[in-house]
Write a structure and sequence with these properties.
With 851 residues, the chain is α/β, with parallel strands linked by helices. The protein contains 27 helices and 28 strands. It has a four-stranded antiparallel sheet with strand order 6-5-14-16. A four-stranded mixed sheet has the order 10-11-9-12, with helices on one face. The chain binds zinc ion (ZN) (2 copies). The site of one zinc ion (ZN) has 8 residues, from loops.
């Protein structure tokens, strides 16, 4: 064994081990190797990204799971990679170009895409480097990228197959359009917000009468594109107007009054305007009544030529003018304040404009039905299960998925438009001619696919699909998906749909959803709030192991974790204690050469007890890992090391003259192996100190469940007497150094053991005991007469201090004005302090009484 350095300084060894693991190729999976399979894919982070606390939590849990499976002998594959992140990456490069006054249109498609690749080569590796630095035990030889030639091939195959099966279609629908990014967005790519807006009530004159119909709208500029107004057939107020028309103000167009359930007689005037080109519900109504589409807002959110005098204006400027003009004409009945639900582009925060356009869609209903059936049949299990209800609800109400994006960075849609017959040819490779009329005048669709389309294929595209590779056969379906719950619909549900449809089986057997990392006030961490913690900073400051341990201790399945510096300090103390334990052990077994592989014969009371604890813990921890209860794994092992190993086992071992070195080394090696999946760096470092000739701890066997229990009676005897002595000392508030005298009565059947362990007991409890035979076990301690008065004086002094401290706090509580201005956590802390002083005061008084 080599002596560990005096001080635990994690940053002195963490980067080196991270590097060594990669160089040694320790985590490369061998598809031909035997053993049960454990496979898992990383949720691919965006190439534009850098590591945040959410990743840190996610990767820590995944890494712990992968390391545990590997150590217990499973054929373990944890596959890494990144996502090309269509819109995000394109925007980063566009912003750079804008600094030089260049737009992507200046460059043209091909050159622009080449620029993005250049950017990716130069900067896109940052998150990968960070994953390497935090020690992710992934198989780097299988690193994947969603836009690589291999994965792009899978994307084309998936698109064409789904198209052949009638699961992809082209359709004209209302989409969320971002006028800034110039692309359609899925519902999931928009943010919903309630803002204070207005509800404008506008009068439409009914032709051939002197009546008006009043409609209310939050977007008055869209009235320019109205092609009808609707009333409800059952509404008695308008019975006489069936078949009439109204004159559309400002535009002077005659439009029909239609009868449609879109108009609710219970709501307002019971009349609604119908703008099929700019509202999804109106679009449906328009289809029912065969209404014209008048598009008055274009892709730049500017008014079109159809908007008459307002053509060319920005939509919000047009809104102002329309309202002013209506007012002039006396057609604005009233304006009332109104909370408006708006959608913004998730990327650039521009207000989304609903526009009708032609896009590609995935028909999700039949795919979702297969997913529901798979979950219901237990082929995929959610952990925690309380996600089922939300998931089912969403899947049952799923809308078709708009997969085309008007971007350049991404997988270009494998569809060719014919200039002659206007039909579309979908093909796996560039066709020579139109498959309908044979014309050579064909051009490829200019759109690319939604980034999430390629991520939906990730669990099988990364394993070689559509080829039936060895990897695919061995590692698909993957064992588990570990992710935060916030991307369940974006990604998890879509992988399930695609996996079942294309790869013929569910993509994973289990989905473990963990929570989000929140700040101390339980707020979500975000750059705009300024409450983010950079994981790399705290890794540097506290060590990666401490960060990992603090996250694992705090994470419960599906529940969020509130993150504070205190958590980190505590976790660092833990790693530090592990270090110091190793130093103590070195002092005992300094010249030992190797770690015993098998459990040695437990020669002493503490060995029998601690080996039992090891064997119990191995069984418990295996079951906790299997159930993804990572916080309980961490708590269990914390307890085993801190309370059992350090406070009892190691304390006793230090006192044994005839120490069993093998037992101590073996126990410590179990501690290191138990903890390795949680704190891989410090355990690897100490493993090599304990056994400099050995290999990596990451490939050593995890303590196996099923070991035997030994008779722990002698150890229980030691613990009960020592605890009794310590309790007496604490109750009496006596100095630790003060040696107490007393007697220990012990039943006849235990007296031999008590005699044997008496020196240990006396040292641990700092007592001198007279051993006697008795009916029951009984410990009697006395305070030496000479110490009584000194003790009394000390206790009385403390009583006085405590009384003053409590009075001081009470005075602060009495001052309500000042108290109100203090933050809640300060007031809470004060209350807690008072409670602690009160408890100590009660103890002190009890001790004085006993004297
Ligand atoms: Zn946008
Ligand atoms: Zn054709």
């Amino acid at each position: 064994m080599q002596q560990p350095d005096k001080v635990y300084e994690p940053r002195r060894f963490e980067p080196a081990w991270a590097q060594w693991w990669i160089e040694q190729n320790l985590f490369r999976a061998d598809a031909n190797a035997p053993g049960p399979v454990f496979s898992m894919v990383i949720p691919p982070p965006n190439v534009t990204g850098s590591l945040h606390m959410g990743h840190m939590l996610d990767h820590t849990i995944m890494d712990a799971a992968a390391r545990w499976h590997r150590m217990r002998g499973d054929n373990t594959l944890w596959l890494p990679g990144t996502d090309h992140a269509g819109i995000a990456t394109q925007m980063v490069v566009e912003r750079r170009l804008a600094e030089d006054g260049v737009t992507r249109h200046d460059l043209g498609r091909e050159k622009f895409v080449e620029r993005v690749w250049e950017w990716k080569r130069q900067y896109g590796g940052r998150i990968v480097e960070q994953m390497k630095a935090i020690g992710d035990s992934v198989d780097w030889t299988r690193e994947a990228f969603t836009l690589s030639p291999e994965l792009s091939g899978a994307v084309i195959e998936a698109f064409v197959t789904l198209h052949e099966r009638g699961l992809i279609y082209r359709g004209t629908y209302m989409v969320n359009w971002c006028p800034r990014c110039h692309t359609a967005l899925s519902d999931l790519e928009t943010i919903h917000e309630d803002i204070e807006g207005s509800l404008w009530h506008i009068r439409y004159p009914v032709n051939g009468t002197d009546r008006f119909l009043t409609v209310a709208t939050t977007r008055p500029e869209t009235m320019l594109g109205d092609t009808a107004v609707a009333i409800n057939a059952r509404d008695p107020r308008y019975k006489d107007l069936h078949g009439h028309t109204v004159r559309l103000p400002l535009m002077n167009r005659e439009i029909p009054i239609i009868l449609d359930d879109l108009a609710d007689p219970e709501f307002g005037s019971g009349v609604v305007k119908v703008t099929p080109a700019h509202d999804p519900n109106d679009l449906e109504a328009g289809k029912r009544h065969n209404l014209a589409h008048v598009k008055v807002i274009d892709e730049n959110a500017q008014m079109t030529g159809e908007a008459g005098p307002y053509a060319g204006l920005d939509r919000f400027e047009a809104r102002k003018r329309v309202v002013a003009d209506l007012e002039k004409l006396g057609l604005l009945e009233k304006v009332v304040p109104y909370t408006v639900a708006i959608s913004k582009c998730d990327r650039c925060k521009t207000i989304v404009e609903p526009l009708v356009s032609t896009q590609w869609f995935v028909r999700t209903k039949p795919l979702a039905e297969n997913v529901l059936a798979a979950v219901e049949a237990g082929r995929i299990r959610f952990v925690p299960e309380n996600w089922n209800a939300t998931f089912f609800n969403w899947m049952r109400n799923i809308r078709d998925w708009c997969i085309s994006r008007q971007l350049w960075w991404g997988h270009r849609i494998p569809a060719w438009h014919c200039a002659v017959c206007h039909e579309i040819t979908v093909a796996r490779s560039t066709p020579e001619a139109c498959s309908h009329c044979g014309s050579h005048d064909i051009t490829q669709d200019s759109d690319v696919l939604d980034t999430w389309f390629s991520s939906a294929l990730w669990p099988f595209s990364t394993l070689g699909w559509p080829d039936q590779t060895v990897d695919l056969k061995k590692y698909y379906p993957t064992s588990v998906l570990i992710t935060a719950y916030d991307i369940i619909f974006f990604w998890v549900a879509r992988m399930m749909m695609m996996g079942i449809e294309l790869a013929g089986d569910v993509p994973f057997r289990e989905v473990h959803m963990h929570g989000l990392v929140r700040d101390k006030d339980k707020k979500k961490m975000s750059k705009t709030r300024g409450n983010t913690i950079d994981p790399l900073d705290i890794n540097e400051k506290y060590g990666t192991d401490a960060v990992r341990m603090s996250l694992l201790m705090g994470t419960g399945a599906g529940t969020d974790i509130t993150y504070t510096e205190e958590r980190l300090t505590t976790a660092r103390n833990f790693a530090n204690k592990l270090w110091n334990a190793a130093r103590l052990i070195f002092m005992t077994v300094g010249d030992a050469q190797a770690i015993p592989v098998e459990q040695p014969f437990p020669g002493t009371a503490e060995d029998r007890w601690f080996f039992t604890r090891i064997n119990q813990t191995a069984t418990l921890v295996a079951s906790l890992f299997e159930q993804h209860r990572y916080n309980e794994v961490a708590q269990e092992l914390w307890h085993l090391f801190w309370d059992d190993f350090c406070d009892w086992y190691l304390e006793i071992k230090k006192l044994r003259v005839e120490g069993n070195r093998d037992a101590l080394l073996y126990s410590f090696s179990c501690i290191l192996r138990f903890l390795h999946p949680l704190v891989p760096f410090v355990t690897e470092e100490l493993w090599h100190r304990v056994d400099p000739a050995g290999g990596s701890i990451a490939l050593s066997p995890y303590p196996a469940p099923g070991g035997r229990g030994y008779d722990g009676g002698d150890m229980e005897l030691i613990q009960s007497v020592v605890t009794g002595g310590r309790t007496y000392r604490a109750d009496q508030k006596l100095d630790k150094k003060l040696r107490l005298k007393g007697s220990f009565e012990c039943p006849a059947d235990r007296i031999e053991a008590a005699g044997r362990e008496l020196p240990i007991i006396e040292k641990l409890a700092n007592v001198s005991l007279q051993l006697k035979a008795g009916e029951v076990q009984r410990l009697v301690l006395q305070l030496p007469e000479a110490d009584k008065s000194a003790t009394r004086a000390r206790l009385e002094k403390r009583r006085e201090e405590l009384t003053k401290l409590i009075a001081g706090i009470d005075a602060q509580f009495a001052d309500e004005a000042t108290l109100k201005r203090k933050p809640e956590h300060v007031v809470n802390a004060l209350g807690q302090k008072r409670a602690a002083y009160m408890a100590e005061l009660a103890q002190t008084e009890a001790a004085l009484d006993a004297l």
